[in-house]
Amino acid sequence: MGTKDGCNLIDDQTYAKEDSRALPGPQYYTKSVYQDLDDADTTVAMGKFGQKVLVWQAICTCGLRSSIFFTKGTINAKVYEEECLKKRMLPLYRKHKAPHLFWPDLASAHYVNSVLQWLSKNNVQFVEKDINPPNCPDLRPIERYWANVKRHFRKEGTVSQNMQELKKTGQLPPGKSQK
Ligand SMILES: [Zn+2]
Q1: Whole domain around residue 130: which residue ranges?
Q2: pLDDT digit string (tens) for the chain, length 179 residues
Q3: What is the CATH number of the domain that holds 68?
Q4: Ligand 1 centroid to 34 CA: how many Å?
Q5: Distance from the alpha carbon of residue 53 to the mean position of ligand 1, in angstroms
Q6: CA 7 – ligand 1 centroid, Å
Q7: Considering the domain boundaries, does residue 178 fall inside one?
């Protein structure tokens, strides 16, 4: 898989909650936060689960990352082509001079004809569907990357009230990513 000495540019999507305390896994609270609140407030804070947000990003084995695409909708073929590939993946892909390969996540919307045509039209070398192995997180470091991002935000206790805030806080500080 991949060209000799070249990069593998990988994309993936995952769900995040606007309130990172609602992510699965251990939750962090500091008691003092609630001491001055009445019951109604604590009930809201504890029980309010953030709205589900779909997060897409492409990362490269060299460490480069695309900007993140957030949506409360779904990523169908049209959205994937326009928002993910055209606006975010392609600029990252073109930053490379050495041979490199785009390895799309094996989602059905990623392999419809219009998307494949778009990839060829833009001279993007990509992993064909029939050789794209399903469910191999070990081979796809972005899966580990998401886990790291989520762990990071749980630890920081980052709480985003809305999409705008999530866009601001939903970025790991530079250097925190894992190859
Ligand atoms: Zn790269």
Answers
A1: 7-169
A2: 444 458 889 898 887 766 555 544 443 333 333 334 333 333 333 334 566 788 899 988 888 899 989 888 889 999 999 999 999 999 999 998 877 899 998 888 889 999 999 999 999 999 998 888 776 666 666 777 777 777 766 666 655 656 666 666 555 544 444 33
A3: 3.30.420.10
A4: 45
A5: 27
A6: 4
A7: no
Residue 137 lies in a domain: yes
The answer to whether residue 176 sits within a structural domain is no
**Residue 22 CA, distance from chain mean position:** 17
Query: What Å distances lie between residue 147 and 31, 112, 151, 163, 178, CA to CA?
Result: 26, 28, 6, 20, 10
The rounded Å distance from CA 62 to ligand 1 centre is 4
Task: Quickly tell me which residue has 């029939």 as its tokens.
Answer: 130
Q: What's the pLDDT at 37?
A: 38
CA of 141 to the centre of ligand 1 (A): 13
pLDDT, residue 148, reads 74
CA–CA gap between residue 142 and residue 148 (Å, rounded): 10
Spacing, Cα 126 to ligand 1 middle (Å): 14
* Interval between CA 26 and ligand 1 midpoint (Å): 33
Count of domains forming the chain: 1
| Domain-located, residue 97 | yes
Distance from C-alpha of 33 to C-alpha of 149, rounded to nearest angstrom: 24
Output the CA 27–ligand 1 centroid distance in Å: 34
For 170, left (φ over 0), alpha (ψ -120 to 50), or beta?
Answer: alpha
For residue 65, report the distance from its CA to the centre of ligand 1, in Å: 9
